[in-house]
Amino acid sequence: MSKPEKIVAIKGMNDILPADAPLWELFENTAETILKSYGYQKIVTPIVEETGLFKRAIGAVTDIVEKEMYSFTDSMNGDELTLRPEGTAGVVRAVIEHNMVYDGPKRLWYKGPMFRHERPQRGRYRQFFQFGAEAVGFTGPDIDAELIMLCRRLWDDLGLQNVRLELNSIGNAEERLRHRADLIAYFESHADILDAEAQRRLHSNPLRILDTKNPAMQEMVNGAPQLLSYLGEESRAHFEGVKRLLDRNNVQFTVNPRLVRGLDYYNRTVFEWVTEELGSQGTICAGGRYDPLIETFGGKATPGVGFAMGIERIIELMKGLGEPAQPGQCDVYMVHQGEEAQVQAFILAERLRDAGLDVVLHCATPTGAGSFKSQMKKADGSGASFAVILGEDEVANNVAAVKSLRGESGEQQQATVAFDAVVDHIVDAIVGGHDHDHDHVHYHP
Ligand code: HAM
Q1: 2-58: pLDDT as tens digits
Q2: For ligand 1, atom 20, which residue shows the shortest CA distance?
Q3: How far is 299 from 256, CA to CA, in rounded Å?
Q4: Which residue, of 365, 379, 433, 437, has the greatest Cβ tally within 10 A?
Q5: Residue 155 DSSP class
């Protein structure tokens, strides 16, 4: 028989292995705690939505919609479906569908996988995870500032340094229209410098040309008319309001007049948190205001603003800080030998779990049940504070041997404890000595 062909993961879609899981947990716990402390509530929307939702929300002439969506026809019923490339469209759909703002504005957060058919590279994947927040029904610059400040709190709590904030205002549709005419005229007068991509976008989405990474176009683009000087009274006041609140709260930022974002739903405030530590994919969080979006979906005119962060990119930054301090895999490792001892080990393990402890029970592997010695090695490697040992003698005497593996002075002490007293014995020993609190972030370099 020929060897079966190996199946591997889809290119650009990654496994998150147990070795990295503590960092992911640390990120998610910290982010969720912060979002809760600002009054944000969790929302979960489907990974698959109608293709039309993203086309309308993100815009037909964007990289995402033009070439990055995983879209397909459901062969069961002919529906046109897409794996969500981002979270805002789905959240906004849910807000309208469930009439969520009928009793006032809402602060929401979400996390989950997103899908974009991009060319994979460091920090850019085809399945990636976002952690995002959307605030719907708030008009003022205060909520924009709040969203930005809660990001800063998250970077601080995670210990991330060298993350900076770029800010811009792209005004409203009318202001952009006036700017657009001058922008096109400017680009046309420099037609010889425009690359193929820019020429293609000249009349469909000229604003995105400002975003170009082409070094040959930088100087020309730097001299282009700036949207900021086309802002009317209200947009200008809103932007000043955001900047004032950030200033007064010591949030540092730079205004980047070329920051326009790659999705069409934005107006007024846009922002990105960027780092130089991740190479070309250095934006760890991005967002902005999208006031007209809900109305274009047939909802009652309701303003919105939000952000999403790329979790893989943040994990990469966290890796540079070292391993998070974690308790071991478990509190207690159960070592046993013999048929009756195994039954007793199961019973005791359940009682210990009832008492709130994490317990790993030794189970057979292809090399067998394992000698006491090899089981004790596993117990040591598990990071457990205690090994509970049950053999024929212990069963006959209705006791268990309890061995402390992480004594204060490093020495391992063993006690013989009555079977029914084992739970109390271990709980008493662990209380005070063991930190089950994951809220505070510590790293081991
Ligand atoms: P976005 O800029 O397309 O915005 O994505 C937000 C963040 O997701 C990026 O800054 C990056 O960290 C991460 N990200 C995007 N694409 C990839 C990828 N291929 N691989 C790894 N990470 C990636 C949005 O998605 C908007 N929905 C944000 C928003 C929410 N605006 C308002 N509310």
Answers
A1: 889 999 999 999 999 998 999 999 999 999 999 999 999 999 999 999 999 999 999
A2: 124
A3: 32
A4: 379
A5: H
Q: Which residue has the higher pLDDT, 235 or 439?
A: 235
Residues 6+ apart with CB under 8 A from 131: 27, 28, 31, 109, 110, 111, 308, 309, 311
Q: Is 143 helix (H, G, I), strand (E, B) or coil?
A: helix
Report pTM.
0.90
Task: Report residue 31 as tokens.
Answer: 């982010």
Distance (Å, rounded) from C-alpha 29 to C-alpha 347? 32
3-state SS, residue 216: helix
Q: Which two tokens stand for residue 33?
A: 């705690």
User: Which protein residue's CA is at the shortest distance from atom 25 of ligand 1?
Assistant: 86
Averaged pLDDT, 58-84: 95
Residue whose tokens read 């960092």: 23
**What pLDDT, on the 0 to 100 scale, is given for residue 61?**
84
Query: How far is the centre of ligand 1, averaged over its atoms, from the C-alpha of 333 (Å)?
Result: 42
CA 135 to ligand 1 centroid distance, Å: 17
Query: Is 266:170 a contact under the CB 8 Å cutoff?
Result: yes
Ordered DSSP codes for 318-368: HHTT-EEP---S-SEEEEE-SHHHHHHHHHHHHHHHHTT--EEE---BTTB
Atom of ligand 1 nearest to the CA of 126: 19
CATH number of this structure's domain 332-444, picked from the four choices 3.40.640.10, 1.10.645.10, 3.30.420.40, 3.40.50.800:
3.40.50.800
In degrees and rounded to multiples of 5, residue 372 shows phi and psi of -55, -45
Q: CA nearest 443: which of 17, 18, 23, 24?
A: 23
What does the mean pLDDT of the chain come to? 93
CA pair distance 39, 187, nearest whole angstrom: 45
Q: What is the mean pLDDT of residues 61-79?
A: 95
Task: Indicate whether residue 109 lines ligand 1 (CB < 6 A).
Answer: no
Q: Is the CB of 370 under 6 A from ligand 1?
A: no
Asked if residue 135 has its Cβ within 6 Å of ligand 1, the reply is no
CATH topology of domain 18-171+231-319: BirA Bifunctional Protein; domain 2 (3.30.930)
413 touches 425 (CB < 8 A): no
* 286 Cβ inside 6 Å of ligand 1: yes
Please give the pLDDT value at position 401: 97
